[in-house]
């Protein structure tokens, strides 16, 4: 698989992961029954696994200069924060207002990590301000 194909696969997986987390977060906040269905619990893991595999592929096939800049470190820290917030939302029992706050924060972290990755700068969207 060439670098460009892997990059587009990674981008599609990022979009699908965001869409599923967005939908699943609404369902969890509203205690909607489909949030407990098997496909809702399995599909995000499959997509996130493919996302992680494509990320490793991009690291090995891409230019080695990516690790010379600080944007990748910032992106990885933001991704870890996003995963932590996701686990808190989906695993810990909380009130609806608390779930909404955690979900909103996770979405903002995800979007900020995306801007860091797109702009290849640790400030992400704040670089444009």
Descriptive tags:
129 residues; mainly alpha; 4 helices; 74% helix
Low-confidence stretches: none
Q: Could you tell me the radius of gyration in angstroms?
A: 16 Å
Bulk shape: globular
Count of helical segments? Answer: 4
Could you give the distance between the termini? 37 Å
Strand tally, please? 0
Question: Averaging pLDDT over every residue, what do you get?
Answer: 89
Q: How large is the share of residues in beta strands?
A: under 5%
Instruction: Give me the secondary-structure category.
Output: mainly alpha
**Could you give the order of the helices and strands?**
HHHH
Q: What is the percent of helical residues?
A: over 70%
Instruction: Characterize the largest beta sheet: strand count, sense, and whether it forms a barrel.
Output: none
